[in-house]
């Protein structure tokens, strides 16, 4: 189901933005850093994909971060909710129709590296689509053969690194592996992911990156580490841990984004 961009334009009035952010689990606090906020519940936008996951507020917010106009999607629908890798396509299509050119994706992720502890932020340099699902399956046009050599824009990543350095903040970088979820990975799957070259694992972002590149948007993405992968500490994983830890790393990511956006 598509979303009528006219409906959203009428609610936004003369407000526009070149940059949009998608906030992952527990990262809704980044909305509080925006000035001149206008909040629009997803329920007010017919056809807009709505998440049922706790930790996702489910609203579109227009505001300014460091003086830069942005549209924030506070919450996303996941593949594991709908069984549809293209579930976020209507949302991204309407952002494109509104003039968005840059998409900033965030997520909560599990670390596969001892030196990347909970509370850290990892800039995504590349990804591994381990789920095997692809949001462009069924797309009839030749645009479905979307190139992914530089899925994550090199210039935007450079701006993120420069912003972190200017704020004296640690910003790791690495490869993100997408598992379908919603169950967490097993210790054996985590060992496999490390062998295959992943640095963090999660249940989102990759399908949105593919869709965004298909739509011609530039993408930059970052993970907030909320836990170590299964089997690395002996502790069981939980979504509550994700919600509890994400705001700590989210505060760091918010500072980096605030410094990076004017550079975009």
Automatic annotation (TrEMBL):
<dbReference type="InterPro" id="IPR000845">
    <property type="entry name" value="Nucleoside_phosphorylase_d"/>
</dbReference>
<dbReference type="InterPro" id="IPR011269">
    <property type="entry name" value="PUNP"/>
</dbReference>
<keyword id="KW-0328">Glycosyltransferase</keyword>
<feature type="binding site">
    <location>
        <position position="227"/>
    </location>
    <ligand>
        <name>a purine D-ribonucleoside</name>
    </ligand>
</feature>
<keyword id="KW-0808">Transferase</keyword>
<dbReference type="InterPro" id="IPR011268">
    <property type="entry name" value="Purine_phosphorylase"/>
</dbReference>
<feature type="binding site">
    <location>
        <position position="185"/>
    </location>
    <ligand>
        <name>a purine D-ribonucleoside</name>
    </ligand>
</feature>
<feature type="binding site">
    <location>
        <position position="204"/>
    </location>
    <ligand>
        <name>phosphate</name>
    </ligand>
</feature>
<comment type="function">
    <text>The purine nucleoside phosphorylases catalyze the phosphorolytic breakdown of the N-glycosidic bond in the beta-(deoxy)ribonucleoside molecules, with the formation of the corresponding free purine bases and pentose-1-phosphate.</text>
</comment>
<comment type="pathway">
    <text>Purine metabolism; purine nucleoside salvage.</text>
</comment>
<feature type="binding site">
    <location>
        <position position="25"/>
    </location>
    <ligand>
        <name>phosphate</name>
    </ligand>
</feature>
<dbReference type="InterPro" id="IPR035994">
    <property type="entry name" value="Nucleoside_phosphorylase_sf"/>
</dbReference>
<dbReference type="GO" id="GO:0009116">
    <property type="term" value="P:nucleoside metabolic process"/>
</dbReference>
<dbReference type="Pfam" id="PF01048">
    <property type="entry name" value="PNP_UDP_1"/>
</dbReference>
<protein>
    <recommendedName>
        <fullName>Purine nucleoside phosphorylase</fullName>
        <ecNumber>2.4.2.1</ecNumber>
    </recommendedName>
</protein>
<feature type="binding site">
    <location>
        <begin position="76"/>
        <end position="78"/>
    </location>
    <ligand>
        <name>phosphate</name>
    </ligand>
</feature>
<feature type="domain" description="Nucleoside phosphorylase">
    <location>
        <begin position="18"/>
        <end position="261"/>
    </location>
</feature>
<comment type="similarity">
    <text>Belongs to the PNP/MTAP phosphorylase family.</text>
</comment>
<feature type="binding site">
    <location>
        <position position="108"/>
    </location>
    <ligand>
        <name>phosphate</name>
    </ligand>
</feature>
<dbReference type="GO" id="GO:0004731">
    <property type="term" value="F:purine-nucleoside phosphorylase activity"/>
</dbReference>
<feature type="binding site">
    <location>
        <position position="56"/>
    </location>
    <ligand>
        <name>phosphate</name>
    </ligand>
</feature>
<comment type="subunit">
    <text>Homotrimer.</text>
</comment>
<dbReference type="GO" id="GO:0005737">
    <property type="term" value="C:cytoplasm"/>
</dbReference>
